[in-house]
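R.M. (postdoc): so does anyone remember the format we settled on? I'll just put the structure tokens first.
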């Protein structure tokens, strides 16, 4: 259980949240988000596209009521991983990005990914979470493994070489129990 404090999520508002997201996704620490050169308008358009998509959703994560992270969830049968693996019933894809800060808090990113996983598994229909981070993003690989993800294989996506990894509800619970 996190001692960082409470996290909540709300649906992202592409127009209202675009300026905040633009600062986050163009920050040097968000290089793997691949939006370094995006304009404010680009960010607003991208998240308006996601908001309009039936199988892709974006949420703003709040820590003590303040914006702290971005969470995306998607159905891999229709978004991101179409044709790259065989989805199982209950598979849910996920992306997350922690807001850049000048005052890092030890354990914060781990607490965020744990909160994201709790949010995804709060839906009883979610049986397994799938992620596809860049193969070079060693920091996120370690975070993913800490919450129960097991790498399966590298895959080629149009924009990157990715490490396809999965985490079942049971693997997440076991990882949470091991870190308690």
């Amino acid at each position: 259980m996190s001692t960082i404090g409470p996290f909540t999520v709300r649906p992202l508002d592409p127009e209202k949240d675009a300026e905040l997201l633009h600062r986050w996704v163009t920050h040097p620490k968000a290089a793997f988000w691949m939006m370094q050169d995006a304009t404010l308008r680009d960010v607003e358009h991208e998240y308006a596209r996601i908001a309009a998509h039936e199988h892709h959703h974006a949420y703003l994560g709040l820590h003590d009521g303040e914006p702290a992270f971005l969470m995306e969830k998607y159905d891999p049968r229709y978004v991101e991983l179409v044709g790259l693996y065989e989805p199982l019933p209950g598979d849910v894809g996920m992306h997350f990005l922690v807001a850049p800060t000048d005052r890092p808090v030890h354990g914060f990113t781990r607490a965020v990914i744990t909160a994201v996983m709790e949010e995804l598994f709060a839906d009883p229909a979610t049986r397994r979470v799938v992620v596809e981070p860049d193969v070079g993003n060693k920091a996120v690989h370690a975070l993913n493994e800490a919450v129960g993800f097991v790498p399966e294989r590298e895959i080629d996506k149009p924009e990157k070489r990715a490490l396809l990894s999965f985490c079942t509800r049971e693997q997440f619970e076991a990882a949470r129990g091991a870190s308690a």
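R.M.: ...and that's the designed sequence above, right after the tokens. Also worth knowing: The longest strand covers residues 66-74. The two ends are 6 Å apart (CA to CA).
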